[in-house]
Every structure is written in structure tokens, then in C-alpha cells.
């Protein structure tokens, strides 16, 4: 029965997984740009421009879109299903622990930090404080998100595309 259900949703699962994989690059590139630009502008005492505002907005949108797609995947992924079937045993398996807990938890916290960073930057009263807050929050989010990506060289390796 479970297998029958999966055969029915398999094409959708594959399409959504590809989309989630590709959107990763948008988030990764925007994070690198946002962190680098925030630090350069903070130390260089630069103005907070409309470009800075746009970069942080696009980062927020792409991260939230990735969150929605990831949540959808969570309910149809066979590996998450396997991880949740016997949670205790899954914690002893690097692959199942990664897909059942580590990836999801780190990404949700990372995206929450991006959201918080944007709110805190908006509340700041000087341009320097805006850059500083964005730099610190976005760097933290970047470390967390990068550490939970299944890079091809990691133990939970997935393809580049
Ligand atoms: C910035 C945030 C995120 C990034 C960069 C990211 C990245 C990735 C990548 C690269 C894959 C492997 C895709 C493939 O094998 O083709 C993946 C799979 C997956 N992600 Fe994310 N992800 C993010 C957020 C999330 C969130 C928030 C959730 C859940 C709430 C989630 C749930 C999943 C699931 C369930 C899979 C599929 C596992 C499978 O069936 O093989 N992701 N993610």
C-alpha cells in the first residue's frame, strides 16, 4: 500500500527534489553576496543603499521559498519516511539522522536567523548598525545552512545538480 502510494507520487517527488536542489544555489549565492557586502559596507562605513535592501529582500524570499518546498518534501520523501519509521535506530545511522533531523532542523533555524537579521537591520537607526546587524546574523545563518547542505564530498553526499 505504502509502495503503491509512492509510485503514484514519484514523478512529483523527483520534480520537487530537483527544484529544491536548484534553488539551493540561489540561496547560497545570495547568502555569500549579502554577507560579503554587509561586512565590506560595515567596515568601509558605507551608506545602506537600495541595493543592500534588495539583496536582503531577495535572500529572504528565496530562503522562505526553499522552506516551503522543503516542508513539502518532508512529507513525501522516502528517506524521511524511513528515518521516522524507527526514530531511535535512525539516530545511530548517519544518513537517516541527517535527513530525519539534522538537515531540517539546521535549515529551519538558519532561515529563522535570516528573517531575524532582516528585522533587526530594519530596526537599526544608523547605516553602520544596519550593516553590522545584517553581517552578524547572515554570517551565522550562512555557517548553519552551509554545514547542513549534502555537499558531494560529505558523508551524506548528493549530486551537484
Ligand atoms: C536554505 C535552505 C535549504 C537548502 C540549501 C537545502 C538543500 C537541500 C539539498 C541540496 C537537498 C538534496 C537535493 C537532491 O538530492 O537533489 C535537499 C533535500 C531535502 N531537503 Fe533541503 N534544503 C534547505 C531547506 C530545507 C528545509 C527547511 C526542509 C524541511 C523543512 C528541507 C527538507 C529536505 C528534504 C525532505 C529533502 C529530501 C531528502 C530526500 O528525499 O532525498 N530542506 N535539501
Give a structural overview.
The structure is a single chain. With 161 residues, the chain is an all-alpha fold. The protein has one domain. Helices cover 82% and strands 0% of the residues. The chain contains six helices and no strands. The protein has helices spanning 2-43, 50-76, 78-85, 87-90, 94-123, 127-147. The longest helix has 42 residues, at 2-43. The mean pLDDT is 95. Protoporphyrin IX containing FE (HEM) is lined by residues 17, 20-21, 24, 27, 63, 66-67, 70-71, 73-74, 77, 79-80, 99, 103-104, 107-108, 145, 149-150, 158.
Global outline:
elongated
Structural class determined from secondary elements: mainly alpha
Name the average pLDDT.
95
Overall helicity? over 70%
State Rg: 18 Å
- Count of separate DSSP helical elements: 6
How many β-strand runs? 0
- The separation of the N and C termini measures 31 Å
Bound compounds, each kind once, are: protoporphyrin IX containing FE
Number of domains: 1
Largest sheet: none
Amino acid at each position: 500500500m505504502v509502495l503503491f502510494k509512492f509510485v503514484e507520487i514519484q514523478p512529483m517527488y523527483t520534480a520537487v527534489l530537483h527544484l529544491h536542489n536548484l534553488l539551493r544555489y540561489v540561496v547560497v549565492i545570495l547568502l555569500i553576496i549579502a554577507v560579503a557586502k554587509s561586512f565590506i559596507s560595515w567596515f568601509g562605513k558605507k551608506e545602506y543603499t537600495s541595493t543592500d535592501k534588495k539583496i536582503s529582500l531577495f535572500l529572504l524570499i528565496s530562503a522562505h521559498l526553499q522552506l516551503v518546498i522543503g516542508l513539502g518534501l518532508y512529507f513525501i520523501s522516502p528517506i524521511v519516511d524511513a528515518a521516522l519509521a524507527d526514530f531511535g535506530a535512525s539516530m545511530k545511522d548517519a544518513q537517516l539522522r541527517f535527513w530525519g533531523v539534522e538537515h531540517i532542523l539546521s535549515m529551519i533555524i538558519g532561515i529563522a536567523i535570516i528573517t531575524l537579521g532582516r528585522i533587526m537591520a530594519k530596526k537599526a537607526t544608523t547605516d553602520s548598525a544596519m550593516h553590522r546587524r545584517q553581517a552578524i546574523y547572515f554570517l551565522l545563518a550562512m555557517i548553519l545552512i552551509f554545514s547542513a547542505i549534502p555537499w558531494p564530498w560529505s558523508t551524506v553526499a548528493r549530486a551537484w545538480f
